[in-house]
């Protein structure tokens, strides 16, 4: 059963909760710095070399400080590398960049990620991860995560189609900026996005002709899975360039909060601000009536010009006030219990 059948997970809190936090004082174990060369195992030229230096099955955090610079590489944090921390110098300053995409022979969406993380307890703070494959280059992932108990704070993810692949397990994003156009937040994780900025950017070769963009494509395949995307106190907008296009011809530029990639797709927006680019229908079908009876798309007390509920598709819902804390950090991803793991 799902919320559509009147089944709600019990809410264990009276508020939404602030969620797990990245510790404020982190001491670097190793430093990544361009042109620094190797120095006593503490300095690395590439992010991947620093990840390789992390202990296998490490119980303690391994902090990699990535100094300001542009690092052109595909980075993988394997399953056995747990509690790895990426600490940058700020969004737009520390930049990890790649351009792999599904248009290339033999490339899959999963493998196209510039940064792909499998080890649990991953933390990232103050950096940008991007995939520069053009808007015509099909699926091209910037960041993919299968890291349970992962915390991402003040990071920027830039791509076009499929920017952020929140693939599986429990993930928490705070104060991040996520930029893309087609299904650009997708996957089958249980992820909470708190205080994040979600921006649509222009796509395709002739952007002025218009498009249909879905911001999310959640991939829950079975109602027993405790997965879904929860956006709380987020801002949904377009880049400056996109909004100029949008206002020049609002009728041809349509942006939806989500579409059902899989049958039990689940996405909820709470206390968020929707700019005018969100279409009055709000949500978009995938193909015909696929998943429309089984998905759960909920909204609760959102604001802004795109938040008007009067023309919403009939297969979306308003979250009942008495059940809204089912989507709190603690109820949904047990986030208050992570802190012992993070301290």
From TrEMBL:
InterPro entries: Pectin_lyas_fold, Pectin_lyase_fold/virulence, Pectinesterase_cat. GO terms for biological process: cell wall modification; pectin catabolic process. Coiled coil: none annotated. It comes from the Eukaryota. Keywords: Aspartyl esterase, Cell wall, Hydrolase, Secreted. The keyword Secreted applies. Residues 39-336 form the Pectinesterase catalytic domain. It is found in: Secreted, Cell wall. Pfam families: Pectinesterase. This is Pectinesterase catalytic domain-containing protein. It comes from Glycine max (Soybean).
């Amino acid at each position: 059963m799902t919320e559509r059948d009147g089944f709600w997970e019990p809410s264990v809190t009276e508020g939404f909760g602030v969620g797990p936090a990245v510790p404020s004082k982190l001491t670097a174990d190793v430093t990544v710095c361009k042109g620094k060369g190797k120095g006593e195992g503490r300095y690395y030229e590439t992010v991947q070399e620093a990840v390789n230096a992390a202990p296998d099955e490490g119980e303690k955090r391994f902090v990699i400080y990535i100094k300001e610079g542009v690092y052109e590489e595909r980075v993988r944090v394997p399953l056995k590398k747990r509690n790895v921390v990426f600490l940058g110098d700020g969004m737009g300053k520390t930049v990890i960049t790649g351009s792999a995409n599904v248009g290339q022979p033999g490339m899959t969406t999963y493998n196209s990620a510039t940064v792909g993380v499998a080890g649990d307890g991953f933390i990232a703070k103050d950096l940008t991860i991007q995939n520069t494959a053009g808007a015509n280059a099909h699926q091209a992932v910037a960041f993919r995560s299968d890291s349970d108990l992962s915390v991402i704070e003040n990071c920027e993810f830039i791509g076009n189609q499929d920017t952020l692949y929140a693939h599986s397990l429990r993930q928490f994003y705070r104060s991040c900026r996520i930029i893309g156009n087609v299904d650009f937040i997708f996957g089958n994780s249980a992820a909470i996005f708190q205080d994040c900025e979600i921006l649509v950017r222009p796509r395709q070769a002739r952007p002025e002709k218009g498009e249909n963009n879905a911001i999310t494509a959640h991939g829950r395949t079975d109602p027993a899975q405790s997965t879904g995307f929860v956006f709380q106190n987020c801002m949904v907008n377009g880049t400056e360039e996109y909004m100029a296009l949008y206002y020049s011809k609002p009728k041809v530029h349509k942006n939806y909060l989500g579409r059902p990639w899989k049958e039990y797709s689940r996405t909820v927006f709470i206390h968020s601000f929707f700019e005018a680019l969100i279409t009055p229908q709000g949500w978009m079908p995938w193909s015909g009536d696929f998943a429309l009876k089984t998905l759960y798309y909920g909204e609760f007390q959102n604001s802004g010009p795109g938040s008007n509920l009067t023309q919403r598709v009939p297969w979306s819902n308003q979250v009942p006030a008495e059940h809204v804390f089912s989507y709190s950090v603690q109820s949904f991803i047990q986030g208050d219990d992570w802190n012992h793991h993070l301290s």
